Amino acid sequence: MDKQYDIIIIGGRVAGASLAMRLGQQNRKVLLIERITFPSWPSVPSSPIVHPGTMRLLSELGFAEEEYTYAEGKADHVIMDMMGKFQAVMPMAMMDLDRNYIYGIDRNKFDTVLWRRAASCPTVSAYENFAMTDVLKDAAGRVTGIVGRTGDRTEEVIQADLVVGADGRFSLAARKFGAEPFEELNDYPSASYHAEWEGVAEYSKACPHPLVIYQLGGGYSLLCIPIDKQKYIIANYLRTGDTHFGGKKLEEHYVQALQSVPRLREQLKNARRVTPVVGVRRIDNGYRQAYGQGWALVGDAFHYESPLDGQGIYNALLASKFLAEAIEQWKNGQPWEEAGKEYQQRFYDSSHDMLKQTVARVQQELYTSPPPFVVNTLMRWVLTDPRFQKKFLLYLSRAIDPNTFTFGPSLGPVARGFLRDVFRTGRRQPAFE
Ligand SMILES: Cc1cc2nc3c(=O)[nH]c(=O)nc-3n(C[C@H](O)[C@H](O)[C@H](O)COP(=O)(O)OP(=O)(O)OC[C@H]3O[C@@H](n4cnc5c(N)ncnc54)[C@H](O)[C@@H]3O)c2cc1C
Questions:
Q1: Which residues are CB-neighbours of 297 under 8 A, at least 6 positions away?
Q2: Nearest CA to 366 among 186, 219, 192, 235?
Q3: Does the pLDDT of residue 104 top 90, yes or no?
Q4: What's the pLDDT tens digit per position in 294-353?
């Protein structure tokens, strides 16, 4: 291993690997390190969906969809089942984008594909099973390199012009750099647990593998994400305060939640869980300072948020794109203080409205319990309104300004729903029995 690089990147998943690829395209001499070896599951707790915005960023990096997905992970319908009272069926074709579908992805495959592509860049040296344990600083406090440890516990000291922490939401790099959160939106903390299942029966003949959101009420929801043939990730979302499970074990509580939905129970009749139940008990929402003397943060290390809207991978890819552009500016003569500041602000401006909406959705979905009367009227009118559905799907796909979308009851969908009920007119929802 060389002892001097332009940039060292700590962490080799979405943010780190994509940044290495972009810096490789700029011919920078990059060291990319990752403490685990690929393929690896489930060291990253994620119940992952990639939406059209994410796929666009992956296309920019030269990936074809088939490289990181499986054919039967493709979902062209989102179905929201409201406490068994009604189904809102949302065909993604109504978005009218280049891609009118999402994919559930197998992170094992996805992260491995990204890592291998980054490692194949001629100017990138990629080392797995190699963990950063400390950072080097000069007398003025500027970060100048890292101390790392290989699997056989050999210690290495490596220098760089810039050290980037792409090491996830619990970032050790952030602590070593002294990066503090500068904004947090944590009034509604949430938790999420998930596992992979095989042998899951089709949802229906007409719509074999949609993405299904089951709103269970009382602060619980389930997300069923197809990732491959008869293979699903099923995630449970709940309030952090409800994670003591009334004395039950996590797995027992998780399975009980799945079994409480008759339709899902039927789908799981001959299915088996093939991974442990993993997740995060408290998912915070916020931003850390993303740059400083000799260092930067990217991906979840910089910005972390609830996975309810499935934006983490998109955000990590977007931030790494912006950071690569800031590094280019810096290498072309702009002072790092300025380039880093612009990077932080640019990403903040691109993500903050969405974050606020996601936090509002967490509040609404997990922290409010509407009475059955409201579910049967207001919520049904809104969620089955085609114009609302189109906006919701475009919002999740990052194809519209998040500020133009409201999840709660608003006049248009409510009035149209009311009139549909009164006159029994309008588009009938397809019934996927
Ligand atoms: C429960 C849950 C569900 C989610 N669902 C979705 C979803 O549906 N869609 C979506 O887009 N996003 C989702 N996310 C978010 C998504 O997983 C993250 O946003 C994304 O993985 C961030 O990528 P990253 O590269 O920044 O960090 P990570 O994926 O966390 O990768 C960090 C890497 O750094 C490595 N590392 C850490 N410390 C060191 C060290 N000292 N030395 C070397 N390497 C180190 C780790 O091993 C890890 O591989 C979810 C997250 C959670 C918690």
A1: 164, 165, 166, 171, 173, 174, 177, 179, 288, 289, 290, 291
A2: 219
A3: yes
A4: 999 999 999 999 988 999 999 999 999 999 999 999 999 999 999 999 999 999 999 999
Residue from 234, 300, 347, 354 whose mutation best tests the ligand 1 pocket (most atoms within 8 A of CB): 300
What number is the average pLDDT over the span 197-209?
91
Domains detected in the chain: 4-49+107-184+284-356 (3.50.50.60), 65-105+186-283 (3.30.9.100), 372-423 (no CATH)
Each residue's pLDDT tens digit, 111-159:
999 999 999 999 999 999 999 999 999 999 999 999 999 988 999 999 9
C-alpha–C-alpha distance, residues 60 and 305, integer Å: 24
* Ligand 1 pocket, Cβ-based, cut-off 6 angstroms: 10-11, 13-16, 33-36, 43-49, 131-132, 166-168, 172, 192, 279-280, 283, 299-300, 307, 310-314, 316
Burial of 9-29, coded b for 16+ CB within 10 Å and e otherwise, reads: bbbbbbbbbbbbbbbbeeebb
CA-closest candidate to residue 50, choices 61, 38, 35 = 61
Q: Contact 89/429 with Cβ under 8 angstroms?
A: yes
Report the pLDDT value the prediction gives residue 379, as an integer from 0 to 100. 87
Amino acid at 276: P
Are the CB atoms for 232 and 320 separated by under 8 Å? no
In this predicted structure, what is the pLDDT of residue 377? 87
Half-sphere exposure of 270 (CA within 13 A, CB side): 4
CA 14 from chain centre, in angstroms, equals 10
Residue nearest to atom 51 of ligand 1 (CA): 46
Q: Closest Cα to residue 31, out of 124, 151, 134? A: 124
When computed from its CA atoms, the radius of gyration of the chain, rounded to whole angstroms, is: 22
Whole-model pTM: value is 0.94
Instruction: Report pLDDT for 411.
Output: 79
Query: 145 phi and psi, to 5 degrees?
Result: 170, -165
Burial of 404 (0-12, 13-18, 19+ CB in 10 A): exposed
